[in-house]
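User: Structure please.
Assistant: Input sequence and predicted structure:
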Amino acid sequence: MEPTSNKKTLNDIKNIISKTSKDVSYFILIQVILGLILTILFAIAYYLFFAGDVSSIVSNFITIDVYSLVAGIALMFLYTSFGFKVLASLTIIFSLLYFAINILLFSLIFRLSRSFKQLEAEEKTLIQASKIQKWFIVYLSLSSLAFFLPSFGWIIAIMIANAVLNISFYNFHVILSRYGLKPTVLKNSAYHLLAGSFITIVFALLLFIDIFYLPGMIVGYIFYYFAFNNMKNHILFVSPVMRDTPPPPSIPAPSAPPPRPVISSNGKIEVAKVPSPPASDYDEDK
């Protein structure tokens, strides 16, 4: 009964990974929508009010570290007297929501990393699962560190974080190739993640010459959405060598060793007939 229990546990872990991946993709989609709303609000503020003053506010909100976020909120309150009080309030609300969703995504990815660790603990064949867990932790550590690194420190941290996230999805691709299915390019989560991280890293590099990061992050997160959305489906197809598979049928061995040849009283060598194997159920049915 133990193999059946192990199989059930393995399926339970895969279901948890699938559900968590679905939650991650869902909140990434919400983050994309919030990012688009913020982009529209920044554009309205930039073109309807003092471009020079508003640009300093926008430049604070497009960065990811907490110091810039606080500075951007403070500037919003400072410029409310210029006539965009409602616009400033909406921008602050959606910015805080965007920040909160980001923290929630970190907690979900951490839960996902723990599930992959449990996956290898249950099925030793899936040695790549622990590598996925380790690189997820590296991604979370660097992304969290980026919130507290001022100046260009957060840019470097976020670029490395998005780069190492590819390693996690590459190991997931290896698991799929060996024990699951081989998805096409349009369905491959590793390729989606690679495209999203490439766009995010390029726009982060452009920050060194003062180009907006938020639009690039939105486009990159769209690819991240497809990556995690595909993971939620593909993990269910992972099926390592089943431990409860019955052995292949074989001809039963005789219950007694074959008789040895003996010399009879007249000097002739006689060999007893070897008993034929018992008839199988197939023969009886015939």
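The chain is about 70% helix and 0% strand.
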